[in-house]
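Risk register update: the risk that structure generation would not scale has been downgraded. Supporting records follow, first protein first.
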Amino acid sequence: MKPMKRFSRMLLLASSAALLVACDNSDKEYDATGVFEATEVTVSAKTTGELTSFTVKEGDKVEQNALLGMVSTEQLKLKHEQLETNKQQLRANKRQLSASKNATDSKRLDLDKQVASIKQQIANAQREQHRFSELVKDGAVPRKQLDDINDQIAVLQRQLSATQDQISSNNASLAQQGSGIDAQMDGIDAQMAGIDVQQAQIRDQMADAEVRAPLTSFVLEKYVEQGEFVTIGKPLLKLADADNMFIRAYVSSAQLENIKVGQNVTVFADYGDKQLKAYDGTVAWISDKSEFTPKTIHTDDERADLVYAVKIAIKNDGYVKIGMYGKVKF
């Protein structure tokens, strides 16, 4: 083979190899790899007592606000009932005071009616007095009839004066009595308001005895079982957000210039044996510090010693599990 032909053949092979490498780089299926994670929440006891129910199991999916367990509330219920009994007694006392106050007001009203009645009788008698005075002048009636009317008016005026004196005397006593009753009723209202506050606090404590899921999630771990005695702050179980997950991938510094928060990317869940499932993802966070490449992670540039962590959020359809391996295509 002549030297020129040999050189042309080598040049052709080199060009073909370069083309294959270029094609391989452009057709690469992913740019970064990572592991799927989820937001984890530890649910702790909000009150102290026996865990009377707690049947949830690890791996269960629970809906937000679902009742997962219950701490004993028997003592709280008894205290609430006792306070309700006290409040009923106070209501009965207030009714008695109210009846007494009504009786006092009725006494005032009776005396006022008596005064009004006497004044009306005096007015009637005075009209008769005027009429009989004219008749006596004319000699139509005897003087004695006019004298009888004058005596009647005098008696009525004495009755009016006595009743008014009685009203004046009683008013001070009745006013003092009524003021005392009002003060007692105000005191009862204050006591009932205090009981209402205590009952509201008890109801709040009884609500704290309910163990509820703060979000739709999977049960990762249980730390206690039904029948155990728990105290405030004791961890009961750990949950993981079931619907919203993310993959923590790692990229080299050279890749960072093409990645930004809010960017839409494609995420692949790797089920093994080249079984991949694609999800729409959004870059949610980019670390501002580099770190050494984790041993289980493959990057676009295998020569890179330092990489940056990136979190990419996805909406889980129930198939992605925590710890599953995944890939990202930016």
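Supporting record for the second protein:
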Amino acid sequence: MTVPFLSIRGFRKTFGNIIAVDDVSLEVPKGEFLTFLGPSGSGKSTTLYAIAGFDEPSAGDLRINGQSILATPPHKRNIGMVFQRYTLFPHLSVGENIAFPLRVRGRAGADIAKKVNAMLALVRLEGFADRLPAQLSGGQQQRVALARALAYDPPVLLMDEPLSALDKKLREEIQVEIRRIHQETGVTILYVTHDQEEALRLSDRIAVFNHGCIEQVGSGEALYIRPATRFVAGFIGDSNFLKVSEVRRVGQTAIALLPDGMRIEGVPAHAGNGQSRQAELMVRPQSLRFVKESERGLAVKVKDVTFLGDTSSVLLETEWGQEIWFRGAGGSLAANALAGLVRVDWNPADSHLFC
């Protein structure tokens, strides 16, 4: 039996009466880019900091190569860490910042110089070795922080919302660099973010956190196409949740009756989480299509049309007063129908019923 490279087993963390993380278990293969995705307070950073050794678990175990690391102090776990704030030493040059973790490990001077040059090349900052952090842009500072974290060849790199302080364009540029660096180094990365688009861009797999638990783990495509829970369906991608007045289960699918009497058959059905909730039909805005008035479809009124370049975003209202969104080509049809009713339809297999 193959021992997982990194293993989180029954991890639980409490702060007094507050449960921050509750019974999280996860196995991470060597070289994977795994993202912890979820809203603020969902437990993702708490889990990351426990792996780093900054927080002690209330219960459970954390293992690397089958060996528990709970008794190992943070500075001996040989784990790299990149924070939201760059945490560079302001009085040290770029080269000296990168060299710092090597000096404290007693590396030889020639080895340090060689490694610093290699790290500067990796993050594409050749020629910046003598500059101070204050002379760099935010994106450049984060690259230095990344180079410093990788300088001593850690088997695991932890990244806690490292790009949240950057503007959108720069964030996307650094995302490309992080993905490239991961592919070139093969380091195992655990990455924390609340930005679903960032998670989709970077990750091999995503663990979706909610209220201290992991709701689903999978590739971005799997989470988008086959969400296991209503929370995942609403958190990954854009979603419409239509009210359902009646449900009849047929194996793994269901027949759903909407409030206007429209019948939807063959919808993938998901059981609820034990909480009282009205049945809802999730359909992506991109899955909707406009159909002719004479065709079968959901009657809606167009309330607003926004041109977005290659697509249009259309706000619709159902006959029972619920607002939903359409996203895609075909906005001109909606624009011509602003004063009256139009119809939209979708493939039932592309929707999900949560009840």
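The chain has a mean pLDDT of 91. On this basis the risk owner (M.S.) recommends closing the item.
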